[in-house]
């Protein structure tokens, strides 16, 4: 008899999706300067490694509310955007990623079309060919990030006016 590992089973994937949706619903009233998606449809794409994606998302969402601090890379010191990303991946998966947004954008890996984003993908923002911000995609058009001085780690919509106008692409870290 063949037993499917729990993290690869369809039941686990559905359970994880429900847990993530419930978590997002609970965070839905947190302060955000972004508006809900404006008509863009995000296809639900299953992550290649659902267990890893789930652990990254749960850790990142658990840090919502942590103060922003330029150069910060721990919950105790606060986070800047790339500090948040590198902390979450190192803490949950022992994966050491580059430290800056620009270096993260340059990592090898496929660029991901917006309609193919999946939980755990890195989303990048900038202008004129420069990347200066990064977040972790959580699903349903939302991402978690450390936005700016005086703010806290929060969830925002990719389709929010500011983020939509500065979106430069995405990379898949989990394969």
CATH architecture: Alpha-Beta Complex
Sheet-strand content, in percent, reads 15-25%
Structural class: alpha+beta
Question: What's the average pLDDT?
Answer: 82
What name does CATH use for the topology?
A: endopeptidase fold (from Nostoc punctiforme)
Task: Report the span from N to C terminus.
Answer: 28 Å
Rg measurement, Å:
15 Å
Which regions contain 5 or more consecutive residues with pLDDT less than 50? 1-37
Highest-level CATH class: Alpha Beta
GO biological process, one term: proteolysis
Pfam families: NLPC_P60 (PF00877)
Domain NlpC/P60: 50-174
Organism: Stenotrophomonas humi
Walk me through this protein's architecture:
The chain is of the alpha+beta class and 175 residues long. The chain has a single domain, classed as endopeptidase domain like (from Nostoc punctiforme) (endopeptidase fold (from Nostoc punctiforme), Alpha-Beta Complex), CATH 3.90.1720.10. It contains five helices and seven strands. The strands form two sheets. It has a five-stranded antiparallel sheet. The longest helix is centred in the N-terminal third of the chain and has 18 residues, at 10-27. It is globular, with a radius of gyration of 15 Å. It starts with 9 loop residues before the first helix and ends with a strand.
Defining key terms:
alpha+beta, globular, disordered N terminus, NlpC/P60 domain-containing protein, signal, cysteine-type peptidase activity, Papain-like_cys_pep_sf, thiol protease
Overview in brief:
By secondary structure, this protein is of the alpha+beta class. It has 5 helices and 7 strands; from the N terminus they run H-H-E-E-H-H-E-E-E-E-H-E.
